[in-house]
Write a structure and sequence with these properties.
This protein has 396 residues and is mainly beta. It contains 6 helices and 29 strands. Bound molecules: calcium ion (3 copies). The site of one calcium ion has 9 residues, from strand 19.
Length: 396
């Protein structure tokens, strides 16, 4: 963790509170002053709890706090009144992930809901500031979401390997089948969310669409490329043995797919199926940001594309999953992906460090292992020192 937050430490005044730590180890009273006790009041704003129990308090919610500067994590469960007492934590900005899955028996009592995988989550409040002397409870509203994303981004490796100069063609993205059924990747779209700091363009608040100038599609005509329950697949920039160019990198000859850009001098491994380029306005290969970017997986009508100002429009309702990453993941004001798809951001990885971003495993009360997807990458993802292509270390 320390390296992950090194960038944040250099950039924020929190550095000075970090220095206080060293002093305060010899000066206990000062240290005590910086620890805070606050109450979170978890309130359902969707009307679901009201409908079920006649009040808006959310009981049994799993509340996860992660300190921005210190990296420490705390997990609590709300009581019958929807309260969580957070005690003895250091003052800081905390990323917040709250999830209260609805029990199937609760869903049964709600005629508007058609499936079983619903959760109340804190979409509108991805973080809280905890300061000493706060006496008023912090009220955190929850929304109802359908947790149905059948296929999720499980890992993004974009930084490039160490010790190989400016080499970064070993990048890959990894997907995971969260369901109990065989699914098909055929025709699914992978797109990069467009924004331009230089042109002052950012479509984060667009009410309908993601704007993209980098859109690729899985091959196949419907049932050619299955992904089995619990399977991890990778799409590599080039399906070659990268260890020839970068000793710290990987042999991607066994990749599931590769991005082959037909209008460029790109490499095509005939053994590995190619991702199909729909549109990419620049670059000699599939190109994503090494330190910051946002990607979505979508199922959309690629025969009738909608365009605006030279970019493809992707309806939000077609998005299956989306992830944003930033060089400083606490700077959420730099986001470009709508918070309804990803309320937070992972990242904090510098170029050529060989590190990747990987979704965490969550274990349900009945012991089922899934990848955490609360639509908040600040808490759903963690950082790997070594990428894990086609597997997850916590997923036997
Ligand atoms: Ca390629
Ligand atoms: Ca190929
Ligand atoms: Ca992996």
């Amino acid at each position: 963790m320390p390296a992950l937050f090194a960038a944040a430490l250099l950039l924020t005044p929190a550095l000075w509170s970090g220095c206080d730590d060293v002093v305060s180890q010899r000066d206990k009273p000062a240290s005590k002053e910086r620890e805070s006790t606050i109450t979170l009041q978890i309130v359902d704003e969707s009307g679901t709890m009201e409908q079920l129990y006649g009040h808006s308090a959310v009981d049994s919610a799993r509340v996860q706090l992660r300190s921005n500067v210190h990296g420490s994590e705390h997990v609590y469960y709300s009581d019958a009144q929807g309260r969580v007492e957070v005690s003895g934590v250091l003052s800081d900005l905390y990323f917040l992930s709250i999830s209260r899955p609805l029990h199937p028996s609760e869903v049964d009592q709600l005629p508007d809901l058609t499936d079983v995988n619903y959760s109340l989550i804190n979409r509108a409040t991805p973080s809280v500031q905890i300061r000493p002397g706060q006496t008023e409870p912090i009220v955190v509203p929850l929304d109802l979401i359908f947790e149905g994303a059948p296929i999720v981004f499980s890992e993004i490796y974009a930084s490039g390997p160490p010790g190989a100069g400016l080499y970064f063609f070993d990048r890959y993205i990894e997907f995971f089948n969260q369901t109990d059924s065989t699914l098909y990747l055929d025709g699914l779209v992978v797109a990069r969310v467009y924004a331009s700091v230089y042109l002052g363009l950012n479509f984060i608040d667009d009410p309908e669409f993601i704007h993209s100038s980098n859109v690729w599609m899985f091959p196949g005509s419907g049932t050619d490329y299955p992904i089995e329950p619990g399977q991890f697949i990778i799409c590599a920039v080039d399906a070659i043995d990268h260890r020839i160019n970068a000793p710290e990198s990987f042999d991607h000859r066994g990749a599931d797919f590769e991005f082959y850009k037909p209008d460029a001098p790109d490499i095509d491994n005939p053994e590995v199926p190619n991702m199909i380029m729909i549109y990419q306005d620049s670059g000699i290969d599939w190109l994503i940001g090494g330190q910051a970017d946002a990607l979505v997986l979508a199922r959309m009508d690629t025969d009738n594309l909608q365009w605006r100002d030279g970019r493809i429009l992707i309806p939000y309702e077609d998005v299956i999953d989306g992830v944003e990453y930033l060089l400083n993941p606490s700077e959420l004001d730099r986001k470009k992906l709508n918070p309804n798809i990803d309320a937070g951001a992972t990242g904090g990885i510098n170029f050529y460090t060989g590190r990747s971003m990987e979704r965490r495993v969550s274990i349900s009360p009945d012991g089922v292992r899934r990848l955490q997807n609360t639509n908040n990458s600040s808490v759903d993802f963690r950082i790997n020192d070594r990428p894990t292509p086609q597997y997850h270390p916590d997923f036997p």
